[in-house]
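Let's see one such:

===
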Amino acid sequence: MNAPAPLVFITGASSGIGQALAARFYEAGYRLALVARRTAEIEAWAAERRLDAARYRIYSADVAQTDSIVAAGTACIEGQGLPDVVIANAGISVGIDTVAREDIDVMARTFATNNVGLMATFHPFVAAMRQRGSGRLVGIASVAAIRGLPGHGAYCASKAGVVAYCESLRGELHGSGVKVVTICPGYIDTPLTRGNRYGMPFLMQAEDFAQQALQTIEAGRSYRVIPWQMGVIAKLMRLLPNALFDRAVQGRGRKKRSGEA
């Protein structure tokens, strides 16, 4: 009896990077476990692409609600088996202003999704992957993790947290056969970035990003910035003395706050 095709579990699969990753992994022969709050959008996308119904399942979950995403992971194991790859991709990006009381709540929602939600996404799979001796746990961070940008405090801090958390988890799973992969996208052309009010150097198509991400994940690399040019820029930004960095970002457009047109 032939072994089943490998399985990838992807959160935030209804649009943007998550959808592009789903398409690329499907093309590579994987079975899909697709997770999002907006399941109707995944269903419409799968129908439009005429995906083989035997090769994918859709799970409704909100990663910001721990029990919701843990239940989706458990249902995946029961219905499709233990994934080979888990991609914690779901995330939100909203501008904040510390002067505004309501933006404290925005900060809390951002961390609930981008950080607590990432851990909750991995939770159902870690012990079983370690027992099996193989697997890939993939955290989608951002080049915004490298330095804090004005008006982007919630997003930058949350993505820096993704990098640090995945590094910690990588150490915990060292020698187990389970790889932890951190991917930091630069500017990718998705609905999340199209409303940005600032320049986006080296803007990359989501399909091209997904191809490079697939290669990175299958190779089990621990960390990668995509595209590589943004990795160079990020390293240079990290090396800038604070005074020069602060001067460089003055006047830069800020991320839209919640409810801002």
User: Anything to note?
Assistant: The longest strand covers residues 178-185. The chain has one domain: 7-248. DSSP finds eight helices and nine strands in the chain.
